[in-house]
Every structure is written in structure tokens, then in C-alpha cells.
Amino acid sequence: MDLEQRLIAAIRAAAQDRVAYVCYSGGIDSTVVLAASVRSGTQTVALLGVSPSLAAAERADAHRIANEIGVRVEEVETSEMELEGYRANAGDRCYYCKSALYDTVQALAAMRNSEELIFVGTHIDDLGEHRPGLQAAMERGVVAPLVNAGFNKSDVRELARRWNLSNAEKPAAPCLASRVPVGVEVTAERLAQIEAVEEFLRSHDVWPARARWHESIVRLEIPPELFERVVTDPFREELRRACRQAGFKFVALDLGGLQSGSMSLPLVAS
User: Fold this and answer.
1) Is the dihedral of CA 235, 240, 245, 246 positive or negative?
2) pLDDT tens-digit map of 166-185
3) Which runs of consecutive H residues, i.e. helices, occur in 53-125?
4) Could you give the angle at which helices 28-39 and 3-15 cross, rounded to 10 degrees?
5) What is the C-alpha separation between 210 and 173, in angstroms, rounded?
6) Burial 118-129 (b: 16+ CB within 10 A, else e)
7) Helix 28-39 crosses helix 153-162 at what angle (to 10 degrees)?
8) How far is CA 231 from CA 175, 213, 221, 254, 258, in A?
9) What does DSSP say about strands 19-23 and 217-221: parallel, antiparallel, or unpaired?
10) Which end of the chain is more exposed for a tag (fewer CB within 10 A), N or C?
11) Are 258 and 223 a contacting pair, CB within 8 Å?
12) Is 35 exposed, middle or buried (0-12, 13-18, 19+ CB in 10 A)?
């Protein structure tokens, strides 16, 4: 079977006569799962978890993309900020975040008296990484159709291109809490600082970017080809002002550029 047939078959086999609640973020993985669930004929509900860790721009983009594929998104307020384990940010923050999301979805399905099945956008490339959220999914019987269909990231993008999804090339967009160093408490105020800086960068086409929180310092990760622009006036001073207005005293440009998981990168031996 080709990619489309494999994924739709995996969804139908898992769903049977149940309602599929798709945990949807607007990222490419969950978008492909959502589109495939709809194409499979399964009764599908798209749920977007909303909390201080979701940037307003990502929230709006998720609605835009879902609208393109003809799906209405329901927003659900998640409460991970109320969990001490989440705020502590001890390396297993994602476990508490995903637990809060899945518990919210299950409670919603129970209120509607529907036999639910939760779909997520995990694919096989995710399985070898440190992802505490996978444990939360396993504990609750959450289903990953992309894994069941044997999809890796390149398969996801290939199918997204075939279906002309506008976010087929969208880079990963981890939640705002991923910008806070492990061991440092996650607070709504710190997330708001991060979002303010990233929104300034996004609105000035310096994107993708990360604003890493280091107390009074914000460490900016941007593509190296944009370095010259951000250190040249008048933009340099505008960026500095925006960072100070967000509550940071100092602004640092990371010469490593945009780095996934940079908060836990190991040192390089000499």
C-alpha cells in the first residue's frame, strides 16, 4: 500500500466505531493525522489544548490550517500549570503536560457519553528520543496512527505535500516552556516574556527563532543567515528595546544558530 492507504487503514483499524479525538497543534504531524482521520470517514473531533505555553501566533495558525482542510477546531483549556511536577521542570515536564491534555480529552468524551479514542501525531522517529510524554500516552491507551502505519518524519512530509497542506514544510514548534532551562520553574510570567520576544522576531520575519530564558538574559537562536540583519541598526536597537520591554536586561545572540534541544546539549570535549 502507498502512504495514504497505509495511514487511513491504520486509522480505520484503530477507530472502528469510536469517535476519534485528535490532539491537534497545527504542527505537520498532528495535521496529517487529522486530515487522514477525516479522509478515512471516521467521526473526528479536532482538539487544540490551550494554555500559557501555547503562543498566540501558533494558536491562530492552527485554526487557519484546520480551516484549509475543512475541520472545525475545538479549544480545550488544559491545566498543566496547576501541576507541581510541570512547574518544577525537572526533565519530565512533558509527562505532566501530556497527562493534563489526555485527561482533559477523556473527561470531555465522558461528558458527551461518547466512546472515545485519542489520536496523537507521534511517528517512529520520535520513539528513540527522550520523550516523557510518550509514557503519559501509553498509560492512557492513546493511539499513534503514524507509528502504526510505520511513518517516519519524511513520510509525514511527503504525504502532506501530496495533500497540498500549507504547513508541509513547517519547522518544529515546541511549546514555550521548552525555552526554560531544566530545573528552573516554569511560570506564566516567564512564558509571557519568551512569547513577547519571539512574537517580535516572528513579526519582523526573523523566523524560525527561539528566545531562551536565562534570568535577566535572553539568548536568541536564529538561522545564521539572519545574523547580519539582527546586529545591524536600526533593527539591532529595535530588537534590544523589545527584549528589554519584555523584562530582560541583556540580549545574547547564540553563535550556534537555531538548535533543537539546546538547553541540554552536552559539552564538546577538546
Assistant:
1) positive
2) 999 999 899 999 999 999 99
3) 56-68, 84-88, 93-111
4) 70
5) 9
6) bbbbbbbbbeee
7) 60
8) 27, 20, 13, 12, 16
9) unpaired
10) C
11) yes
12) buried
pTM for the structure as a whole = 0.93
- Grade residue 128 by pLDDT with cuts at 50, 70 and 90: confident
Check: CB of residue 55 under 8 Å from CB of residue 176. yes
Count of helix runs (H) and strand runs (E) in the chain = 11, 7
Q: Per-residue b/e over 130-153, b at no fewer than 16 CB within 10 Å?
A: eeebbebbeeeebbbbbbbbebee
User: Residue 57: what residue type?
Assistant: A
Calculated CA dihedral for residues 88, 89, 95, 96, nearest 10 degrees: 40
CA distances from 216 to 166, 241, 246 (A): 37, 14, 10
What is the grid cell recorded at 173? 514548534
**Helices 235-245, 188-203: inter-axial angle, 10-degree rounding:** 160
Q: Is 229 helix (H, G, I), strand (E, B) or coil?
A: helix
C-alpha cell at 207: 523566523
Which residue is listed with cell 510570567?
Answer: 189
